[in-house]
Design goal:
single chain, alpha+beta, 13 helices
Length: 551
């Protein structure tokens, strides 16, 4: 609309200038240039039969392409334009010189005449209008303010329309925080029902974001340990300045966490305002690091992370994910670096920057695959269709890590087993679970560990199926983990067919129609499946993206 108004304004302005120019210069409005066949457009001193008074030299037959006639001089001979004669070998130009007096006569809408003695005279010339400068000033005085008013009106309309489409919750959607030099004018307040912290307060809490306070460095930001003025310990995530999606991830995490309440999900304490120097998120501080720290990191100690503790971690994580799915949320970045551990190894699932709200009454969301290499659902990676079963696949990798203490991706392993999911499928298909389990867990010496670890491995195998339809839901996974821990049921022998969840899990173990080279009684785990993707992006994200990872 603004473009169309501007174009109309330019046209009106252009026409007014032309009209003004004609008025000032004094040309006869009837004496317009005219088209004359192959001679093109002609004007003074030439004229046609329609307006003979507009020129000195008459031109006729303009409607015929190659037969124009020009009369040089009053009552003089006619010259014909010839283009096809074989006798003419060159090009001729006709130049007519008009005296300055005759030219000025024409400007005054007069007619140039000469008597028999050659004296020039100008007939019927319009007298010089002394009011022209005054009229010109009057026209400019009217047109200029009118144009100014129209331009200002268009700008005001455009400005208000632009403001109408701004985000109602974040006003300018936090874009002003990218390079803002404003002070924290909104040191107190609420966005999305969470408290607002000033940038200066969080800088003070983290000792000006000292690198010694750094807890983790991930794909979207750096996490620092801090202590607020009221004594609370917090984890402060500062989103990277160079991340073009940081505003989207910032808003996404706030919106999701403010609608969730679960003992195994990390709590959001607040965030900075849109006027702060950077986008900061403030979480509860979880002091005991991540699962990855205890399995492969500097906290790794087999005596601390025993098998019963690992079982509890698996159950609590499954409960948190089942709660998310019931709330129509897909985490999309489930991994051991995003599962925090409290003092009693209580689970806190964190980092919702990639999470998606899942609309009701849809089977999937089409989106570009995102996540961490080694954890991404292969079907999501290939088909760009995100479902809650994508989280199930990632959780299957976490289960294998809890069993084996191996990292999800290790380039030092055989090239077909760089991805832990492929290694696990290999071992389980060969019925060599003992080669997969961490020896420090007592697999060979403790029958209970052997039973439960084998059952968890088989459950993880189901979660890692290439076809998402063959994976159980998180509700079923949670219930089965609880049964494995209590010893009520083994995954390979489900008998209560009246229980819907059991029937669903049992159907997961039934193989699809076997090709000719398989026996009908073959289990699904004896079928070789396509490998999972080893990488999702060209550049791998190092360490973690969690808000609370201790040193």
């Amino acid at each position: 609309m603004a473009r169309a108004s501007s174009l109309l304004l330019l046209v009106i302005y252009h026409l007014s200038l032309l009209s003004l120019a004609e008025e000032v210069m004094g040309f006869n409005p009837r004496c317009r240039p005219f088209s004359c066949g192959n001679l093109g457009f002609l004007s003074f001193p030439f004229s046609n039969g329609t307006n003979p008074e507009c020129g000195l030299l008459k031109v006729e037959n303009c409607s015929e392409p190659f037969r124009q006639k020009i009369q040089l001089g009053k009552d003089g001979p006619w010259f014909i334009s010839v283009t096809s004669s074989r006798t003419i070998r060159g090009t001729f130009f006709l130049r007519v010189n008009v005296t300055e007096a005759c030219y000025h006569c024409h400007r005054k809408q007069g007619k140039c005449e000469s008597d028999k003695e050659g004296n020039f005279s100008c007939l019927n010339a319009r007298k010089e209008d002394r009011k022209q400068p005054r009229q010109l000033g009057l026209v400019i005085g009217i047109v200029a303010p009118t144009l100014l008013v129209v331009v200002l009106s268009i700008y005001i309309i455009w400005y208000h329309k632009r403001g109408k489409y701004a985000s109602p919750n974040f006003h300018s959607t936090y874009t002003s925080s990218d390079h803002s030099t404003k002070s924290d004018r909104e040191a107190t307040g609420v966005y999305f029902e969470v408290p607002i912290f000033s940038y200066s307060e969080l800088a003070e809490a983290t000792n000006n974001f000292n690198h010694e306070k750094e807890l983790g460095d991930g794909g979207f930001g750096t996490v620092f340990h801090g202590k607020l003025r009221d004594g609370r310990e917090v984890a402060v995530k500062r989103l990277y300045e160079h991340n073009y999606r940081r505003v989207e991830q910032f808003m996404n995490e706030i919106e999701i966490l403010t609608h969730l309440c679960h003992r195994n999900l990390v709590s959001l304490y607040g965030c900075t305002s849109r006027h702060s120097q950077g986008l900061l998120l403030v979480y509860e501080f979880i002091p005991n690091g991540t699962i990855a720290d205890h399995l492969q990191g500097d906290r790794a100690n087999p005596c601390l992370l025993t098998w019963p503790i690992r079982m509890n971690i698996a159950i609590e994580t499954a409960g948190a994910l089942a709660y998310l799915h019931a709330s129509k949320i897909i985490h999309r970045d489930v991994k051991t670096n995003n599962i925090l551990l409290g003092n009693n190894f209580c689970v806190k699932v964190a980092d919702f920057g990639l999470s998606r709200l899942f609309p009701t009454n849809v089977t999937h969301v089409s989106t570009v695959p995102q996540g961490t290499p080694g954890y991404v659902d292969p079907e999501y990676h290939q088909c760009y269709q995100l479902t809650d079963k994508s989280d199930v696949y990632s959780f299957g990798v976490v289960l294998i890590e809890l069993i084996s203490s191996m990292p999800a991706v290790d380039i030092s392993r055989h090239r077909h087993e760089i991805n832990l999911a492929n290694l696990a499928i290999n071992r389980i298909q060969k019925q060599a679970v003992d080669e997969l389990v961490d020896p420090s867990l007592g697999f060979h010496s403790d029958e209970e560990v052997k039973r439960t670890a084998t059952s968890v491995a088989e459950l993880a195998f189901l979660c890692l199926q290439q076809n998402k339809e063959m994976r159980p839901s998180m509700d079923v996974v949670l219930e089965e983990l609880q049964r494995i821990k209590s010893g009520e049921c083994k995954t390979e022998n489900l008998t209560r067919e009246d229980d819907d969840d059991k029937k669903e899990l049992k159907s997961m173990y039934q193989p699809p129609p076997s090709p000719p080279h398989y026996e009908e009684s073959a289990l699904l785990k004896n079928i070789k499946l396509p490998p999972s993707p080893i990488s999702v992006t060209e550049n791998w994200i190092s360490i973690d993206t969690t808000p609370s990872v201790s040193n």
